Each structure stands twice: as C-alpha cells, then as structure tokens.
Amino acid sequence: MKRLVDHSEVIQHMNGRLVKNNIFKLLFFFATVFGLIILVVLLYRVFTQATGWLNIDFLQNFPSRIPERAGIKAALVGSIWLMAMVAPLSLFLGVGTAIYLEEYAKKSRFTDFIQTNISNLAGVPSIVFGLLGLTVFARGMELGRSVLAAGLTMSLLVLPVIVVASQEALRAVPNQLREASYGMGATKWQTIYRVVLPAAVPGILTGSILALSRAIGETAPLIVLGIPTFIAYLPKSVFDTFTVMPMQIYNWTGRPQEEFQHVAAAGIVVLLVLLVMLNSIAIWIRNKFQKRF
Amino acid sequence: MKNWKVVALSTMFSGVLAFTTACGGNATNEGEKNGSSQQLQGDVKMDGSSTVFPIMEATAEEYMAEQPGVKVSVGVSGTGGGFEKFTKGETDFSNASRPIKDEEKQAAQKNGIEYQEFKIAYDGLSVVVNKENTWVDHLTVDELKKIWTSGAVSGNDKVKWSDIRKGWPDEEIKLFSPGHDSGTFDYFDEVILNKQPINKNAQLSEDDNVLVKGVEGDKNAIGYFGFAYYVENKNKLKVVPIDGGNGPVEPTHETIRSGEYKPLSRPLFTYVNLKSLKEKPQVYDFAKYILENGAKFSEDVGYVALPKDEYTQQLKTLEGLKK
C-alpha cells in the first residue's frame, strides 16, 4: 500500500530544497555585500585622501590656485542657499500636485495624460532641464546666473520624483481613514490636512530625501545655466551669483597638480556630511510622524 | 503633531539662515580691512574654456585681494559654451583655447557685440608614451597623423608600432585622447587630424588625469594633453619630441614660448566685450590686471608665459580701446 506521505521521499526532496534555499540566501547576501564593499572602498579612498586637508581653514577659505589655500566656503554656502530654495519650493509644488491628482481630480483622459507626462519627466536627462532653465528663467525672465534661476531649474528637475513618491504615499493611506473622517462630518480639506497628509508624510519624505539628494549632487543643469565655478564672495540675496560643491569638486579633480586630488577628496567629505545632515533631519521628522500610527 | 511640524521646520530654516548670514558677515568684514588707492565696485562676469580657467582663477583671486569691492566670477562652460553666452552679451569676458570661429563672429555681429581678443599664455600639447617605451625617440607630424587618423593604416584602425617605423615592435598601439568637447581635442583635430575622424580605437576622456593614468599603465600607450599635465607627471611619463619639419623638438618652456615647438603649441585667449570695457571701470581694470600679471599667473598654474613685449603691446591696445 502506498502511503499518502512517503517519509523517505520527503527527506530526499527536502535536501534539494534546503540547498536551493541556501543558494538564494547566499546570492542575496552577496548582492547586499557587493554594494556595501563598493561603498566602503569609496569612503576609505576619499577619507584617506582627505586626511590632513580637511580642517577649519578648508571650510573658511575661498577657492585658490594654491592647493593649501583652497577652500570650499563659497561652494558650501552656495549649496545651502540652493537647498533652502529647492526644498520648500519643490515640496510645495510636488506634494500639491500629488494631492490634486490623488484626492481631488477625477480620473479622466486629462489626468491620465498628466500622469504619463510626469512619469516620463522623471526620466528626462538633467541637461535638458538645464536648457529649459536657461531659456525660461535665465534668459526669458532675465534672472541670469542667480540662486533664483538655479533654484527654480533644480526644483523642476526633482519635481517629478517628488510627485510620483507622494502619490504612492497618498494612495497607501487606507480608505477607511478617509471614510471615517467624512463620517465625522469633516470636509475634504480637513480630511486631507488632518488625516491623509500626516499618515502619508513618512512616504512623502522618503521620496523627497532621494530627490533632494539628487539636487545637491547635480552639476549638468548648472553648467548649462552658466553658473560659475570660481567665486570668492557669498551671495547676499537670491539674485546673486553663486557656485555649488559638486562643480567645485569636479573642477578640482580635473587639475593637473596632484594636491588638488586631496582638496577634491576633502570637498567630497564635506558634501557627504552635508547630505547626511539634511537626510537625518528628514528622517527625524519622518520618525516623529511614524510613531503616531 | 502640529507642534512638531512647526518646530522641526523652523529649526531647519533658522539653522540655514543663521549659517548663511553668519558667513556673509565675515566676508564683508574681511573686505573692509583691505584699502588701496582707488576702490572699484561692481561685478565682472567671465566664462569659457576650462583650460584657461586656472589662470583666471589665480588672477581673480589676487585681484579681489586688491579690489574687494569687485566681484569676479569665472565659469567653465567650455570655449564654445562660453562664446555662446558672450555673443549674446551675457558675459564680460570669454576665455578660449582657440580663436573665435566664424559662426561665433556672425552671432556676435548679429547681436551687436563688439569684442577684442587678448592672448594670455601658451600651452604646448604634449605627446607622451609609457616610461618603458624604449623605442620611440621622436615622432614626425606625418607619423602622428598615421597613428591618430582613422583608416590611415588599416580599415579596422588597429595600428602597430611596426606600421609607423621599421624596427619598432610588432605590437598594437593603445591611444588615449581628450574628448570631443575639449579645446585640446579641437586643436589636435585641426593641426594633426585635418578634420578627419579620429582613430576609432582611441579611448576618449574629458578628464586629462584619466589619460595620464591610461598612458602610465600600458607599455604600448600613446596620448596627448596640455603641457601642465605633463609637467606634473614628468616622472611617470616619457614625452615625445615632435618633428615639425625642422628636426625633433621637445616641449619645454623655452621651445613653446619661442614657437620652436611646432605645430602643437597653441595660444590661450580671453575675449573682452568692448561695451563692458567702456562702461564698467572694473572690467577695464581687471583686463589691465590680467595683462600686467598674466605672465606670472600662467607660469604659476603650469602654462607658458608670452614674451614680455607681447603683454606690453596688448596693454597699449587696451588703453586705446578705452577712448
């Protein structure tokens, strides 16, 4: 008589399955480690090159032809100005668009059309946004090579990513929450502001962190706009010229003198620290909201 | 919840504001300490070639120590990108590693932009091979053409040393060249390639340090780039004397300045907008400063200064333009 569960057969199969399980586990482990190793190598290289060059003077000096005197002050302050401009602007526009599309607009051909275009825009090369910024902001609105022109261009560049991420986050908010809010007599705006948005903030911020990190590391659109690399003064208003860290770092890496490679490495460390700082602020805000649900 | 949002956002922005204003304050204080005879105000906008950039960075750095009221900014849009903005009247100076092209002249004319060209320094494109390369003692211009032009030796662009001169090893040459966007490539394209396509197997890079590494790492490699990159890597590379018709000449400060190193030595320029020159005293002053100190700063950053009287002559031209 054949038994329903043949023990010996199960054991035989089991071995194969366990091996398969282990193979996949190893494979995914290596996938994780691969990225980590590259990151560690990169950080190790940058930090060893930067030691001895990264000091207070480096943060307080303007660029110079003499490597020992070169500093990142103008670029660091410029990057912060740019972020102070891009972050609120792109968040307002991006989240606004997402709320309209998800909460207010009815599904129609028109919204489908907008949707497709936003997704496509996320894949447009950054240099195209630079050309757009040059024609519309720098020349059309005569903003020139100012913080304002660059900030508007960069906001456009990261906008699609923020819109798409915010839409996903809004969509993930359970409908029961909205229904309950309406049931209590809340209006649409009250529901969005008090119920939907707080629940969606963690998701929105995750997407925005990625988008803003991109904006801080981008150079191509700024080069097209004609943002200078050498500047030895700080912007006083949004109409002043400025420079940003990635442009300064790129310029240093291309120099013939070997010392400038160290200066560039020190610049990269400063850029990384700024990125980590901005990201941790966003993550901190995100965690505060996450605790509520 | 609401409180958190307000607190978090306001700390973030006040932090940013505090930092930027604090830094802004420092700059003005530093500025006021410096005082010399005639203090000028206003900005000087400069853009263009990344090859010329180090000279102008040095000039601007020293100039602003004397004239803290003048804000000089220097961009690196490339020679072509710089002229695109210059011919629209958006910049006061445009740096170039080649003379202005006809199309660019027409664009300037169309927009009513008048300009003057000034020579700042010389650069000698240096052809280099690997340190272990014992056979190459010099190359003629024709041999360079044979190595670099596409299809000059064979259809698949594989060139061996033995194809170039008898007795050289039967091994394939690895080529390293600056990318198409650089003025260095433009110049090589004109004098060596004669506008013919470059060898398809050549490895192109916009970063000259990558070319240095490439030639350093391969026994059969050959490459070319600006003189400054050769000088900085002298002990890692072997420079090839070039025979332009009058015997092999090695690129040195002397041979480049005298023009003996032919045809690969090239002048570096800056173009100034005449309207800015007349209307903005700081532009005139800065132009004068460039010509007065160009020799020193060019040498400082690895280029070759012009003979002295060329600067004096150009200073006279500049004075004439002001009237």
Automatic annotation (TrEMBL), chain A:
Record-level Gene Ontology MF annotations: phosphate transmembrane transporter activity
Membrane topology, as annotated: Multi-pass membrane protein
PROSITE patterns noted in UniProt: ABC_TM1
Compartmental location: Cell membrane
A Pfam cross-reference name: BPD_transp_1
Any single GO BP term: phosphate ion transmembrane transport
Protein name as catalogued: Phosphate transport system permease protein PstA
Organism: Anoxybacteroides voinovskiense
Automatic annotation (TrEMBL), chain B:
Start and end residues of each PBP domain: 37-291
Gene3D superfamilies in alphabetical order: Periplasmic binding protein-like II (3.40.190.10)
Molecular function GO terms recorded: phosphate ion binding
Record-linked InterPro entries: PBP_domain, Phos-bd, Phosphate_ABC_transporter
Gene Ontology biological process terms in this record: phosphate ion transport
Any matching Pfam family: PBP_like_2
Membrane topology of the entry: Lipid-anchor
Signal peptide limits: 1-18
Source species, domain of life: Bacteria
GO cellular component entries: plasma membrane
Annotated keywords: Cell membrane, Lipoprotein, Membrane, Palmitate, Phosphate transport, Signal, Transport
Localization annotation: Cell membrane
Family designation: Belongs to the PstS family.
Protein name per UniProt: Phosphate-binding protein
Lineage of origin: Bacteria, Bacillati, Bacillota, Bacilli, Bacillales
